[in-house]
Amino acid sequence: MVKPTGVKYTRHVMDYSTALIVRKVGTSCFRLYSVASPKITTHYTVRPRETDHRWKDISMERYEDVADVVIVGGGPAGLSAAIKLKQLATEKNKELRVCVVEKASEVGNHILSGAVVDPVALNELFPDWKDLGAPLTTLVKDDKFGYLTKSSRIPIPILPGMPMDNHGNYIVRLGHLVKWLGEQAESLGVEVYSGYPAAEVLYHDDGSVKGVATGDVGIAKDGSPKDSFERGMELHAKITIFAEGCHGHLTKQLFKKFKLRENCAPQSYGLGLKEIWEVKPEHHSPGKVEHTVGWPLDKNTYGGSFIYHLNESTPLVAVGFVVGLDYSNPYLSPFREFQRFKHHPHVQPLFEDGKRIAYGARALNEGGFQSIPKLSFPGGALIGCTAGFLNVPKIKGTHYAMKSGMLAAESTFDTIFNTSETSETTGLEPKDYEEKVKNSWIWSDLKQVRNVRPSFHTKLGLFGGMAYSGFTLAVKGKEPWTLSHGVPDNERLKPKTEVSVIEYPKPDGKISFDILSSVALTGTNHEGDQPAHLTLLDDSVPVNTNLNLYDGPEGRFCPAGVYEYVPMEEGTGDRLQINAQNCIHCKTCDIKDPTQNINWVVPEPGGGPAYNGMIQAICVRP
């Protein structure tokens, strides 16, 4: 156990043999923490089935299928890669089997983004996208940026070429765009398998990636096999492309196995939360985009808001809030900061007498240029948000995701048909993919803004960061130095004894809401009788470290009410309860957990949110 300085501990053994820690700070009251923690994790990634007698007579054989290329993830990056591969195969008159596995029950259902993005890659992938019916219909007509104090708004001018300049942008539902990309992919012959989460990376004997295995079904909550148990299937490929999105759980394994992060900075993250509202017609201004920084966050907490007005049959507005996950106060709740933001005098009138109809949240990469890992390895490659491609000051990433997928497709195609015979490993490596990225506008764009995000880590916080950002953008990132992000986000939390408790107002049920009523709007569904997919490497850590040292930050950084500390049935302290059925797959817990004890893995097929097309702003370059 990690013990804060100045805190005294004494150990007592109760008559029912439960060891407790009694904490006393000065003359304050005692509080009990259980050392003998109850069993929480039953997932086979932590509790091996090989040593569980209940699995002794269960067949573990899996069906195997073989493709030329397997793509893990059916988002903008994965589908763009699949489409480009089939376009190249048609152009070169080659046979190429391409399979995409997507964990959502339908393509686009897990897509959530609140960023302003620039899909210039869409023009490259489909020059005739308008004729093909791509769902980009709302042109940005009004663009605002401001700094919020507690009671006022200070406008910040947006000049042409500034990161927040959205001239020529379209506001779209990104989930609908992804669904459209999926339809284009299937029309070209791509095999898209929705509801098939990739649960395991498979390897050849030489260590190169062989493919992936999808998740098993029919496992009870206690980890035992049900009568309905079925193994997942193995998908083998010459090259496997990973497009899992931000903080992919298989990508984490690849980072370690192939040391892909050996020569880059730790990734830094933000948490984006979003709601869709139907507002009164007189409050609606189709095509309006507004961003803010400042209140309710303090100057040392990175983040800001966005509001997009759609042009649809009903007056819909998307409002969102992003909080950098490098914050230090364990009492901060990104969800409650978002709810508080909507009560700002400049913001609240927009939502009065309106109706909230959707909610969602997702982690996003903020590390930028410094945090890009090695992009290829024997048997595969990383693309899109899995690789960390996001322009933080522009809040844009979809066009990088699509472009990286296209570049990986080009390298993959060439590797399979032109260089496979010279490969040193069974799994082929698209070695020139990284060079293609470095020679593209992905690399030049991210390098130019590399120092913006880390500049907010000084004692001046927001004000110092904005001042430095103005400088680096003025010189177009040509300063001869690169700033560091410092330690990973999970290491930035301060002990509860070093910070002040943040008091949040109660939600009013009209403008602001509680977490559970919000999760109800996500369409989230998981099979109840299955092991929690939020696994703990050590079941004792939450109480003995997180609760003791940080007062249980899980219950605050999770935007879905998955984690809560409840009294032990025996009345001998607290225990962590994981409400896995609430999980909206944002990955925040896997990122912000102080000891990295939480490991997110995929649930049974089809589990998760059903966002059905959240809203996002997209810029299309001529």
From TrEMBL:
Keywords associated with the record: Acetylation, Electron transport, FAD, Flavoprotein, Iron, Iron-sulfur, Membrane, Metal-binding, Mitochondrion, Mitochondrion inner membrane, Oxidoreductase, Phosphoprotein, Transit peptide, Transport, Ubiquinone
Pfam families: ETFQO_UQ-bd, Fer4_ETF_QO, Pyr_redox_2
Gene Ontology CC annotation, any one: mitochondrial inner membrane
Enzyme class: oxidoreductase
Substrates-to-products reaction catalysed: a ubiquinone + reduced [electron-transfer flavoprotein] = a ubiquinol + oxidized [electron-transfer flavoprotein] + H(+)
Stretches assigned to coiled coil: none
Molecular function GO terms recorded: 4 iron, 4 sulfur cluster binding; electron-transferring-flavoprotein dehydrogenase activity; metal ion binding
Domain 4Fe-4S ferredoxin-type: 574-603
Listed EC numbers: 1.5.5.1
InterPro entries, alphabetized: 4Fe4S_Fe-S-bd, ETF-QO, ETF-QO/FixC_UQ-bd, ETF-QO/FixX_C, FAD/NAD-bd_sf, FAD/NAD-binding_dom
Cofactor requirement: [4Fe-4S] cluster; FAD
Annotated SUPFAM superfamilies: 4Fe-4S ferredoxins, FAD-linked reductases, C-terminal domain, FAD/NAD(P)-binding domain
Top-level taxon of the source organism: Eukaryota
Cofactor binding remark: Binds 1 [4Fe-4S] cluster.
Localisation: Mitochondrion inner membrane
Subunit relationships: Monomer.
Stated role: Accepts electrons from ETF and reduces ubiquinone.
Protein name listed in UniProt: Electron transfer flavoprotein-ubiquinone oxidoreductase
